Amino acid sequence: MQEVPDLLACEECDAVHRRPTLGRNEVAFCSCCGAELERDMSAYRTSVLPLAVASLFMYVIANVFPIVEMELQGIASRTTLIGSVFFLNSEGMPFVASLVLATTVLFPLLQLLALIYLLVAVTRSGYHPAFNLLTRLLQTVRPWGMVEVFLLGVIVALVKLTNMATVVPGVALWAFGALTILLAAVSSFNPRYIWRIALLKQA
């Protein structure tokens, strides 16, 4: 159901309400099913772009620098995330390598680039032809970005390896930790509010 400036449809039950006027940080709920209908995002909207840019910087650091440095019997080795993908592929695990590449490299990058582009574009000019495609792309790839799952797996592996080798966390591991926190904050922003800004500017 398409929204018009004075009406708002509930995403859960499709009940149509007159758009409420919200104060700072106020939330409106559907009178039929109790689902969240509208939330004041004026304060968060101004901070989501810097958060997304900071996430992109952490993403670059996490993928450029080594994740961990390990020394075993005098032999030291280090690897980056991309290096681990190539290693998995060379060890005969192309499916696992593809899964790691998609969920920790490609999808988080697509999510961040699409969100940054949409936020900058809507602030400058409002609606544009690529808006629909990028918003759908953002909604599609968001559940598949599994940086936090990867980080948890690395931490568990490092704890187990400490009994066999000397393990030193790399810069990328700390960047992944910061990226996980930043992505959690960025992901709480509902893309439909970007639509709202665009429609208001177009009107």
Description:
By secondary structure, the protein is α+β, with helices and mostly antiparallel strands. It folds into two domains: 1-40, no CATH class; 44-202, no CATH class. It is 58% helix and 13% strand. It contains seven helices and seven strands. The strands form three sheets. It has a three-stranded antiparallel β-sheet. Strands 1-2 form a two-stranded antiparallel sheet. Helix 1 runs antiparallel to helix 3 (94-124) and helix 3 runs antiparallel to helix 4 (131-141).
Task: Briefly note the structural class of the backbone.
Answer: alpha+beta
Our Rg estimate from Cα atoms comes to 21 Å
> What level of helicity do the residues show?
55-70%
Query: Which descriptor suits the 3D outline?
Result: elongated
Q: Give the termini separation.
A: 19 Å
Our count of helices gives 7
- Strand percent estimate: 5-15%
- Domain count: the total is 2
Annotation, overall tally of beta strands: 7
Organism: Nitrosospira briensis
Pfam families: PqiA
Protein name: Paraquat-inducible protein A
Transmembrane segments: 48-68, 95-120, 141-159, 171-189
Keywords:
58% helix, three-stranded antiparallel sheet, 2 domains, two-stranded antiparallel sheet, alpha+beta, 203 residues
Concise account of the structure shown:
This protein has 203 residues and is α+β, with helices and mostly antiparallel strands. The protein contains 7 helices and 7 strands.
